From TrEMBL:
Substrate binds at residues 244-249, 308-312, 378-383. It is found in: Cytoplasm. GO terms for cellular component: cytoplasm. One of its GO terms (molecular function) is 4-alpha-D-(1->4)-alpha-D-glucanotrehalose trehalohydrolase activity. The active site is at residues 246, 283. It catalyses: hydrolysis of (1->4)-alpha-D-glucosidic linkage in 4-alpha-D-[(1->4)-alpha-D-glucanosyl]n trehalose to yield trehalose and (1->4)-alpha-D-glucan. It comes from Actinokineospora bangkokensis. Keywords: Carbohydrate metabolism, Cytoplasm, Glycosidase, Hydrolase. The record marks 379 as: Transition state stabilizer. This is Malto-oligosyltrehalose trehalohydrolase.
Length: 575
């Protein structure tokens, strides 16, 4: 037993007490609104909570590191120094030149834990990816969920394995040469267990997802510190190599120095101290190059951003679906434009938004590695009514043809778990809120949302049903089946080719040439040509090939012509 120091920021409170077991300890306030107390004779791993004024409710620590009893229970002290890392030789993994793999711990394996996921890491090594992007692991209410309803950002979800479990996962990734990117959510908090406003002026309004943070109002300095310190902790204490920042367009900040710029500067400083590259990847709906423009040039200095326009154009080319936000991407030449420029909407009219949208990217200076491209991801599958993957409606061959564009483009490719073998399992929206009223509200809201788009109530899976979670878990046995194995081997070959041929990972957009026609695309990558047919008819392209690097079954490469049957591709060298 030792003396333990406890602190909490609660600037508007007149009295704060620490609760440890059946003991109450009066805390002392300093001039910045922080309350402190030193408690002798308690375990370093003691459970604790706070009493605010005469509320009578025991609240968990906003900066909790561990919530073994859930988000409504007491916090537990956790010593980061107590974990024995084995990755001392790890020098990091830069984003440039890498291939990412996005996975959700709860459905990646049947067990849904970090330790079970470790048992499947060798599959990713065989596939050839470089960075594992993990959906949020912060504490949320319930056992099952996507993770975007987190409320205690520094506490790792205990059903996954808690903080030690996540560290074992990161350590095991590094042992295999895999970097780790963690998805974090700073734009809102979940609907259950968000007690921050009980302590201080953390909240400043609402988004469509939940309360948003006070980043620029009175007493916002400590709120911003709350965000930045959380991000730095993932890098420093959990050894992650990157953070994917969820929906940064929903971060409301009118300060001269935006939160993203502040975060970028502090992460760069930590990177220098740790001696390894640290990446920040934004998800943004703004089509604004400012996010990845260096700070010295007036930007935020983030490493990269997701590029939904690239996804949308590919999705339309593969499926023909042109409803909702896909409408504009059915225009002739849309895929070619996005392949050249990363963005489709560049200050141009967006029919979905009913306004102009975006800003042009300067392809003379922009690096393609700063823009992530994907055929599928958790949002673009899971936010469909039934969570259906591409191969639920189109052939695996067509998906492979589109994948050839993803892996040979100047952009950073990302794969969603199971995509690499055309998994038959959907990935559906699910949660497990114990509060029945909240659960019913989520269930009803989901069905109402899709009813407006013509889906019947019975067609939309119940997000609160354990069956929905079970249906979304990968079935690893499929890898042994010939059709699925063929897809896997092709994905593996495409990734290996990207690594073997530097021209295919060259991120310079100024060097890219794109040709396209009705259902076909040809990328010029130095002396290589990537020819893809996404139409239902055979095409013959006048390409004088000197050798074939990789080609789909049925593709015919001649000395002056490449013939591609429907849904095939070929990567060839030219003189």
């Amino acid at each position: 037993m030792t003396a333990e120091q406890f602190s909490v920021w609660a600037p508007g409170r007149d009295r704060v007490r620490l609760v440890t077991g059946d003991q109450r300890h009066e805390m002392t306030r300093d001039e910045r609104g922080w309350w402190h107390v030193e408690v002798p004779g308690v375990s370093p791993a003691v459970d604790y909570a706070f009493l605010l004024d005469d509320d009578g409710t025991e609240y968990p620590d906003p900066r909790s590191r561990w919530q073994p009893a859930g988000v409504h229970g007491p916090s537990r002290r956790y010593d980061h120094a107590g974990f024995e890392w084995t990755d001392q030789a790890w020098t990091g993994r830069a984003l440039a030149g890498s291939v990412l793999y996005e996975l959700h711990i709860g459905t990646y394996t049947e067990q849904g834990t970090f330790d079970a996921a470790v048992e499947r890491l060798d599959h990713l090594v065989e596939l050839g990816v470089d960075l594992v992007e993990v959906l949020p692991v912060n504490a949320f209410d319930g056992v099952e969920g996507w993770g975007y309803d987190g409320v205690l950002w520094g506490a790792v979800h205990d059903p996954y394995g808690g903080p030690d479990g996540f560290k074992r996962f990161v350590d095991a990734c590094h042992a295999r040469g895999l970097g780790v990117v963690l998805d974090v959510v700073y734009n809102h908090l979940g609907p259950s267990g968000a007690y921050l406003d009980k302590f201080g002026p953390y909240f400043a309004g609402e988004t469509i997802w939940g309360p948003t943070l006070n980043l620029d109002g009175p007493d916002s300095d400590e709120v911003r510190r709350y965000v930045v310190d959380n991000a730095l902790s993932w890098f420093r204490d959990f050894h992650v190599d990157g953070l994917r920042l969820d929906a940064v367009h929903a971060l409301r900040d009118t300060r001269a120095t935006h939160l993203l710029e502040q975060l970028s500067a502090e992460v760069d400083a930590l990177s220098a101290a740790l001696g390894r590259p640290l990446s920040l990847v934004a998800e943004s709906d703004l089509n604004d190059p400012k996010h990845t423009t260096p700070r010295e040039s007036g930007g935020y200095g983030l490493t990269a951003q997701w590029t939904d326009d690239l996804h949308h154009a590919l999705h339309v080319a593969v499926t023909g679906e042109v409803t909702g936000y896909y409408t504009d991407f059915g225009q002739p030449g849309a895929l070619e434009k996005v392949l050249r420029n990363a963005f489709f909407h560049t200050g141009t009219w967006s029919s979905f938004r009913k306004r102009t949208h975006g800003r042009p990217l300067d392809t003379r200076t922009a690096s393609g590695h700063r823009y992530l491209i994907y055929l599928q991801n958790h949002d673009q599958i899971g936010n469909r009514a039934t969570g259906d993957r591409l191969t639920a409606t189109v052939s695996p061959d067509r998906v492979l043809a589109a994948a050839a564009l993803v892996f040979t483009s100047p952009y950073t490719p990302m794969v969603f778990m199971g995509e690499e073998w055309a998994a038959s399992t959907p990935w559906q929206f699910f949660a497990s809120f114990p509060d029945e009223q909240l659960a019913e509200a989520v269930r009803t809201g989901r069905r109402k949302e899709f009813a407006e788009h013509g889906w019947g109530e019975s067609e939309v899976p119940d997000p609160m049903s354990p069956d929905t979670v079970a249906a979304s878990r990968l079935r690893w046995s499929e890898l042994a089946e010939p059709v699925h194995r063929k897809v896997f081997e092709t994905y593996k070959a495409l990734i290996a080719l990207r690594r073997a041929e530097p021209q295919l990972s060259d991120p310079r957009l100024s060097e890219l040439v794109v040709e396209s026609g009705e259902g076909w695309v040809v990328l010029h990558r130095g002396t290589l040509r990537v020819a893809v047919n996404l139409s239902a008819s055979e095409i013959a392209l006048p390409i004088a090939a000197t050798r074939t690097l990789l080609a789909a079954e049925g593709a015919q490469v001649g000395t002056d012509t490449v013939v591609l049957p429907a849904d095939t591709f070929a990567v060839v060298a030219v003189a």
